[in-house]
């Protein structure tokens, strides 16, 4: 028989459990609302983005290749990413530059990352209101914003941000239940991340640190061997592919250490100018790179203020929270090994300290790690014994003003980034070019020049920055591309910087035609140029009135080219490598009679009629 006290005790326990369940439901609902609000907020940014730079190269390369091991497993300048390669391969076959599809994928991944973090925080700490703070940090931080404007970066960073909390949540459940399926799930999520992002092996390293500090450590030998086997297998495949994959420069990767001074400077800027300020709502100001991207440009006073505030946050956590030092050490270790080292080995020499140090896409993945670390540094893990070094202070809401300031700074920073033109101008170029290709006659000859730098920079993408690679997928087989004009090409066209097709003109020097054409035979006829042409590749346009078809030999200095010249009135093009103040012509076969001669660079005609008349997006 139960006493009245026992019955009352059970009632009290029931009330407490009911209260905890209600509180848990409220926290879950609040977390879901925060994730949904983030999606609404960030959609304004995502919808205004477009493909940029290596996005075009990856899609064009996907169209050129079959879905083979060599295609999927090629390491592109340190990144082994079969998942993104497969998506780019599919993207090219689903309409090429389908930005609506890209935006949809981005928003789904954003939602999945937020929900995955909410699950991990609930599993790790329980359904307590405090978990909404690290969740809010991840949802608000501008650390991830530039990566959302770059499709290729989205395909790497966001799947990783989904996989990290899912894998760690499964690992936490394994340590509590010892059910093998949770360890398998942790490895499964890690393998998923490995298919998308080179930093993914650090997930299992974080699982080890998490166990070392806050989880049950007994009977873990088998799972550590399991995890270690996965890491070893991945390492073998990765390093084999890295040292055998041929890059766009037609050579293989040769990692080298940068100058020590440059490495230290770039690392300091990544930490002080990027990681710390963006963790507190920065950078507040952006440094535009072109029209559709920007680097962090944190003002110097705010850099130092961020460092002071960040140090204060760390010190407070160390004073009160047991093992907070391990949490911050995990964040620092991830930053140095996963963020800094790859940049030091592969890019800092080419980019310099500023570009490498203030490029937020290099630390975008750290936002998820930082959110987890903030939780570990301030919130007791569920079931943790003696979580505090000393009783927490009475002013437990002192963090609220700082959180409010950081949230306001994040909104300010994201709004400032969203104010950039983003993808509008690149989209206008591509959409206008697509319309132009649809309107010109079938089999028109189009000069295969490089696209504008705002679309793809040839210094980085070489042949994949040519219009045939970037725009060719929009109208396969409709036009004939040529890198150099040779012979009597009929009405050649060239793209202007706004994506319109124009007749070709040759800009340089002109030898005017006389009252009648000048006869040219087997002996060279020399035409003095109005000014000397320096060494280089020159396009020569020769007009003629011939009685019969012939071959015209065009010479500039030590370079010459043979081109066909037709019968009757017409024009022929020759591409010559040379220099000098005179142009010499002769024929092989029937004589010719030439008129006006132009030598220079092929450009869109100033007074031609462009197709279309105006860009699609003005």
UniProtKB/TrEMBL annotation:
<feature type="transmembrane region" description="Helical">
    <location>
        <begin position="130"/>
        <end position="151"/>
    </location>
</feature>
<keyword id="KW-0812">Transmembrane</keyword>
<protein>
    <recommendedName>
        <fullName>Glycosyltransferase RgtA/B/C/D-like domain-containing protein</fullName>
    </recommendedName>
</protein>
<feature type="transmembrane region" description="Helical">
    <location>
        <begin position="395"/>
        <end position="420"/>
    </location>
</feature>
<feature type="transmembrane region" description="Helical">
    <location>
        <begin position="325"/>
        <end position="348"/>
    </location>
</feature>
<feature type="transmembrane region" description="Helical">
    <location>
        <begin position="100"/>
        <end position="118"/>
    </location>
</feature>
<keyword id="KW-0472">Membrane</keyword>
<feature type="transmembrane region" description="Helical">
    <location>
        <begin position="186"/>
        <end position="212"/>
    </location>
</feature>
<feature type="transmembrane region" description="Helical">
    <location>
        <begin position="21"/>
        <end position="41"/>
    </location>
</feature>
<feature type="transmembrane region" description="Helical">
    <location>
        <begin position="224"/>
        <end position="246"/>
    </location>
</feature>
<feature type="transmembrane region" description="Helical">
    <location>
        <begin position="293"/>
        <end position="318"/>
    </location>
</feature>
<keyword id="KW-1133">Transmembrane helix</keyword>
<feature type="transmembrane region" description="Helical">
    <location>
        <begin position="360"/>
        <end position="383"/>
    </location>
</feature>
